[in-house]
Amino acid sequence: MSHPQCRFCHTPLRQTFVDLGMSPLSNAYLSRSQLNEAETFYPLHAYVCENCFLVQLEEFETPEHIFSDYAYFSSYSDTWLTHAKNYTESMIQRFGFNPQSLIIEIASNDGYLLQFFHDQNIPVLGIEPAANVAKVAQDKGINTLVRFFGTQTAKDLVEQDRQANLLIGNNVLAHVPNLNDFVAGIKIILKPEGILTLEFPHLLQLIFFNQFDTIYHEHFSYFSLLTVEKVFAKHGITLFDVEELPTHGGSLRIYGRHQESSYHPVSDRLHQLKAKEIQAGLDRIDTYVQFSEKVKQTKRQLIQFLINAKQQGKTVVGYGAPAKGNTLLNYCGIRTDFLDYTVDRSPHKQGLWLPGTHIPIYSPEKIFETKPDYVLILPWNLQGEITQQMAGIRQWGGQFTIPIPQIQIV
């Protein structure tokens, strides 16, 4: 049997990180007319490279197929908008960006972040492959280019004299199958003294808190600081600082610059986090091999909770229709026999059905009409925001259920 190759160092991938069975694309929401059509399921099998420790999925569908018409709009999370605004203020304060700077964001979505720089009269450019999402940004006055990012896009922009003083990529690095081309593009588009910041879920948190549901086909790779530093170093970019963030269950924000640049010495925070990862065993293959068993335990606990609830005549509904929820529900085999429906604030998802499980999506008001006993929070990373918004379920004795890292009733 031939093995897939590591997308960074091309080592054959022989070691399983976790095998979540077969699953549809997690953002392939269904309309009513599609419910009786065949759905395509793909292996959701994550490997770990024994050479560079990059955790990754094989590429079964092209980014063009996955992202050209996309159902995720960043602006529907208040928590995420606040995060973006705070980031903008912090970058301007720390690095002094001004109306002479150019801020470029890769995978700029609906302009959720660039709007805050735009409001400060700082020139911005978004690069967003999903035309339907980019249009929302363009309608807000955010200059947005509808393209995938890589070396060709970077070269084209340099020819137009558009290089970044600040280059931003939030939750995009994991979505890139051609990792080396993407990072090479970053090297090209960054001004000589430019700053790069990227945010992505931290593999250490995924392992420690059993966040297996963040594995889905739209995410091709999962990074530790140890591995991501190697990836950028290969392409001439030095990481000089890192922050640990609470977003998406625990993310990293890395700061990079050209290796040739003398600005920004490497911070103590970066050295300390690498030491923490080594202490946690992220430089040893056995750490990765042990992950699968924790995942199976969580699946058994969740199914047991749902069986018990149903046997007691209780009703259970979902809150949210995130990609991670689709991984969880498909892996655990949870359909409408366990979960009556789910709700989502995004009107782009309401009136559709979840891929694979065919659970219908309504607006949050539905919960107050049917008064369920349990609300299963699928975007568990937004637990605080959701329990606050939906606190009214307490009036009839309703309770929230959190599935990750293990089942918990709150």
Q: What tags apply to this protein structure?
A:
410 residues; alpha/beta; Rossmann fold; 2 domains; seven-stranded mixed beta sheet; six-stranded mixed beta sheet; 21% strand; methyltransferase; Class I SAM-dependent methyltransferase; EC 2.1.1.-; Methyltransf_Zn-bd_dom_put_sf; methyltransferase activity
Structure described in brief:
With 410 residues, the chain is of the alpha/beta class. It has helices at residues 63-67, 78-95, 114-118, 131-139, 151-159, 179-189, 203-208, 225-234, 268-279, 285-289, 291-311, 323-332, 365-370, 383-389; strands spanning 15-23, 42-48, 55-57, 103-106, 124-127, 144-145, 164-170, 190-201, 221-222, 237-245, 251-258, 316-319, 342-343, 361-362, 374-377, 399-402, 408-409.
Describe this structure in words.
The chain is of the alpha/beta class and 410 residues long. It folds into 2 domains: 67-288, Vaccinia Virus protein VP39 (Rossmann fold, 3-Layer(aba) Sandwich); 302-409, 3-Layer(aba) Sandwich (Rossmann fold). Helix content is 33%, strand content 21%. The chain has 14 helices and 17 strands. It has helices spanning 63-67, 78-95, 114-118, 131-139, 151-159, 179-189, 203-208, 225-234, 268-279, 285-289, 291-311, 323-332, 365-370, 383-389, and strands at residues 15-23, 42-48, 55-57, 103-106, 124-127, 144-145, 164-170, 190-201, 221-222, 237-245, 251-258, 316-319, 342-343, 361-362, 374-377, 399-402, 408-409. The strands form 3 sheets. It has a 7-stranded mixed β-sheet with strand order 6-5-4-7-8-11-10. A 6-stranded mixed β-sheet has the order 14-13-12-15-16-17. It has a 4-stranded antiparallel β-sheet with strand order 1-2-3-9. Strand 7, helix 6 (179-189) and strand 8 (190-201) form a beta-alpha-beta unit.
